[in-house]
């Protein structure tokens, strides 16, 4: 029943939204580049909010200068400058959330909606505006997005980045950094990371995804919410995800999963080994044990 209501709600959101266009109405590429040259300065909160919503269509553009260089940069700059009130942020969150359920197009819409939602999450940790329920719902949404990524394309020389796993990891990272995160939320983040640290498909990461996935884990560790035993159990549980031991070193998918897990554990180990933060340093024995147990 809840799933049906969610589908209906997302459908209503999408139906209520105008068709995304890039460049948006009343703008062209030249005017958007001029806006960027001016540091995205725009007079008036209403005008800034309206353009922010209009720019969401460019997050799905195959043109990286419009997608990364203008739409995402503008949204991030305005949010980091505190230009939106809670009402505008809820509107932005809702529209981005709807994008995640919409047509992926050429594969840019979902990853860049997730990346923009990471910035929305950041605003709440800097100056809290979400309710406890809203924050918990965002943790679940981010975790579900990360777990559901199946498009593993990273960088394309002509069209730039898609990077769904890394962008989702950035979203989880911002939530992990929020001091309001509770143990249940932290566990949900760790569960999502575990899924993509060793993707079952046997995709081998080459675009830095293991390092990005390590970040939310490190910031969860920094919170000190888990015991040494809990961390050891979490890292140990990653090892069986490599697959059937009878396939060791003679199956391409098995080798790819081993590669991904080794890269992830190594990224966590390097940070834990060099960190002066007691929470992060405390997970070093657990990750070391997992590395030693690698086949």
Q: Ends: how far apart?
A: 43 Å
Low-confidence stretches: 1-19
> What is the typical, i.e. mean, pLDDT?
93
Oligomer: single chain
Largest sheet, order of strands side by side? 1-2
Secondary-structure-based class equals mainly alpha
Main sheet makeup: 2 strands, antiparallel
Q: Kindly estimate the percentage of residues that lie in beta strands according to DSSP.
A: under 5%
Shape: globular
Count of all domains: 2
Query: Radius of gyration from the CA trace?
Result: 20 Å
Number of helix segments? 14
Number of strands: 2
Helix content: 55-70%
Order of helices and strands: HHHHHHHEEHHHHHHH
Q: What secondary-structure arrangement, pairings included, does this model have?
A:
Blueprint: H1 2-16, H2 29-37, H3 45-54, H4 64-80, H5 86-101, H6 109-126, H7 132-148, E1 155-156, E2 160-161, H8 164-177, H9 183-197, H10 209-223, H11 228-238, H12 252-274, H13 278-281, H14 284-292
Antiparallel strand pairs: 1-2
């Amino acid at each position: 029943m809840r799933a049906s209501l969610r589908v209906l709600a997302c459908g209503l959101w999408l139906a209520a939204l105008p068709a995304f266009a890039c460049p948006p109405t009343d703008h062209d590429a030249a005017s958007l580049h001029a806006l960027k040259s001016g540091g995205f300065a725009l007079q008036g909160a209403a005008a800034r909010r309206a353009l922010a919503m209009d720019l969401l269509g460019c997050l799905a553009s195959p043109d990286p200068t419009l997608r990364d260089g203008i739409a995402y940069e503008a949204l991030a700059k305005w949010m980091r400058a505190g230009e939106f009130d809670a009402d505008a942020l809820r509107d932005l969150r809702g529209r981005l959330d709807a994008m995640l359920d919409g047509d992926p197009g050429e594969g840019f819409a979902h990853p860049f909606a997730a990346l923009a939602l990471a910035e929305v999450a950041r605003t709440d940790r800097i100056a809290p505006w979400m309710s406890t329920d809203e924050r918990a719902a965002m943790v679940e949404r981010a975790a579900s997005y990360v777990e559901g990524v199946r498009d593993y394309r990273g960088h394309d020389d002509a069209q730039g980045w898609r990077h769904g796993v890394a962008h989702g990891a950035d979203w989880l990272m911002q939530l992990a950094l929020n001091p309001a995160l509770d143990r249940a939320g932290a566990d949900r983040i760790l569960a999502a990371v575990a899924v993509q640290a060793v993707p079952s498909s046997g995709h081998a990461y080459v675009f830095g995804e293991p390092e990005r996935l390590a970040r939310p884990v490190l910031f969860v560790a920094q919170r000190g919410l888990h015991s040494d035993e809990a961390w050891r159990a979490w890292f140990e549980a990653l090892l069986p995800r490599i697959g059937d031991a009878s396939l060791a070193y003679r199956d391409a998918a098995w080798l790819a999963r081993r590669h991904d897990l080794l890269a992830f554990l190594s990224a966590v180990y390097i940070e834990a080994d060099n960190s002066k933060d007691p929470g992060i340093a405390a997970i070093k024995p657990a990750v070391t044990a997992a590395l030693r147990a690698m086949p």
